[in-house]
TrEMBL record:
This is Cysteine--tRNA ligase. One of its GO terms (biological process) is cysteinyl-tRNA aminoacylation. The gene is cysS. Gene3D superfamilies: Cysteine-tRNA ligase, C-terminal anti-codon recognition domain, HUPs. The lineage of its organism: Bacteria, Bacillati, Bacillota, Tissierellia, Tissierellales. Its cofactor is Zn(2+). It comes from Caldisalinibacter kiritimatiensis. GO terms for molecular function: ATP binding; cysteine-tRNA ligase activity; zinc ion binding. Zn(2+) binds at residues 27, 208, 233, 237. ATP binds at residue 268.
């Protein structure tokens, strides 16, 4: 398996520190609002990477943090007359609702919170101060970037370039304009904790370094997030972590491309975003997951309603293919395989191999999805009620196996209510008795109820619209 490592700017063979286990840290949301579809992209993409690594036999220790103390959290809490913790608890709950809709593997995800690790953060900062990489000034503590020769190695810029390209606020407490804050001194109306430098709270960058080290070790296999986090967030994580431990922080840095709205990065600061919750009122969130995976994770996506509808249509095709295979498994019989049947089994295995080859190539989910479409198309073109059941089941099992890696096609078909079942049965009887006028009337009645009937050689099939 090859992954594109932002640190080296090339695809590299993936070799974890341990043969059987992968440690993985993904930067999670700041929990002051609902997540938008741009936030959702890394959560979905790296959830699939985790699923695929597990599919290949690895145990994956997967952390996605919650930033529950920062300026945005405090502003929201003050606006609502609530505590920062109340705001955090609310929006962590809302995140988990959206995560379920997006089919993220929450049951095997750890969600450390910054405020639950204040003591660990203080100890980490003390270590940096003691080693000469950080300094205190009027209750604040800053990291001294001039102590590092390789600061900027992730973003591939030197300090002078970073200064000219960044909006650096004038701060008389800093020794250098690019020094970044590790601990902020107490201000009125803000939560604070005791520390050796006085009451205050942690800066943003420090929490990820601390929690990754605490739960995953000094060096982790994969650190992932959106490409907008490369600088300053991930750059600063590397600086503070490697300065303290003297070891590489992460062996592989993965970054997904942005989701844009009319070619502009979607963000809350620009107010050009669509929340996942808003979208869920009209579309099943599995469609959004499928849309995200339909493009390569490192490429930008220009979000639009048309793109969502296109994704819905594609997902429907796969669900219909799955449903057709389920129907054939009900009507096909066990029988001895002919040479042609054996060739079909080989073809099914080839689609599986095609999927794995795509996913091994830097998590190429679009080509992986193409393999699923081709499997479904092959089955629709070559299978009939005469096909041996074992061949149909093989195709079905492979489709389910591979779609589970992508986290799609897992919704159970909803049952028709009794009234609709009776109408379908009544129409079948009318057709048997050649009462086509009544059969057409029932079909129209079902259509009004959102049920479309399809008369096929294998029997009547239905779908909701």
């Amino acid at each position: 398996m090859k992954l594109y490592n932002t640190l080296t700017r090339k695809k590299e063979d993936f070799k974890p520190i341990r043969e059987d286990k992968v440690t993985m840290y993904v930067c999670g949301p700041t929990v002051y609002n609902y997540i938008h579809v741009g936030n959702a992209r890394p959560f979905v993409v790296f959830d699939v990477l985790r699923r695929y690594l597990e599919y290949k036999g690895y145990e994956v220790d997967y952390l996605l943090n919650f930033t529950d103390i920062d300026d945005k959290m405090i502003k929201r809490a003050n606006e609502e007359g609530k505590t920062v913790k109340e705001v955090a608890d609310r929006f962590i709950g809302e995140y988990l609702i959206d995560a379920k809709g997006l089919n993220l593997k929450e049951e095997t995800t750890r969600h450390p919170r910054a405020t639950e690790h204040i003591d660990d953060i203080i100890e980490f900062i003390k270590g940096l101060v003691d080693k000469g990489y950080a300094y205190s000034a009027n209750g604040d503590v800053y990291f001294d970037v001039t102590k590092l020769e390789d600061y900027g190695k992730l973003s591939k810029k030197n300090i002078e370039e970073l200064i000219s390209g960044a909006r650096v606020q004038i701060n008389e407490n800093k020794r250098h304009p690019m020094d970044f804050v590790l601990w902020k001194s107490e201000k009125p109306g803000e939560p604070s904790w005791d520390s050796p430098w006085g009451k205050g709270r942690p800066g943003w960058h420090i929490e990820c370094s601390v929690m990754a080290r605490k739960y995953l070790g000094d060096t982790i296999d994969i650190h992932a997030g959106g490409e907008d986090l490369q600088f300053p967030h991930h750059e600063n994580e590397i600086a503070q972590s490697e300065s303290l431990t003297g070891k590489p922080f992460a062996n592989y840095w993965l970054h997904n491309g942005m989701i844009n709205n009319q070619n502009v990065k979607m963000s809350k600061s620009k107010n050009n975003f669509f929340t996942v919750r808003e979208i869920s009122k009209e579309f099943d969130l599995e469609i959004i997951r499928f849309l995200i995976l339909s493009g390569h994770y490192r490429k930008p996506i220009n979000f639009s309603r048309d793109l969502v509808i296109q994704a819905k249509n594609g997902l429907d095709r796969l669900y219909n293919g799955k449903k057709n295979l389920e129907h054939l498994m009900d009507v096909c019989e066990d029988k001895e395989l002919t040479d042609n049947d054996k060739d079909m089994l080989k073809a099914i295995e080839q689609f599986k191999a095609q999927f794995i080859e795509s996913m091994d190539d830097d998590l190429n989910t679009p080509d992986g999805i193409t393999a699923l479409f081709e499997l479904v198309k092959y089955a629709n073109s070559n299978f009939s009620h005469e096909t041996p059941k074992s061949v149909v089941k093989k195709a079905y099992d492979v489709l389910v196996e591979l779609s589970n890696v992508l986290g799609i096609l897992s919704k159970q078909e909803e049952l028709l209510d009794e009234e609709i079942m009776e109408l379908i049965e009544k129409r079948n009887e009318a057709r048997k008795n050649k009462n086509y006028e009544l059969a057409d009337k029932i079909r129209d009645e079902l259509k009004e109820k959102g049920i479309i009937l399809q008369d096929t050689p294998q029997g009547v099939k239905w779908k909701r619209v």
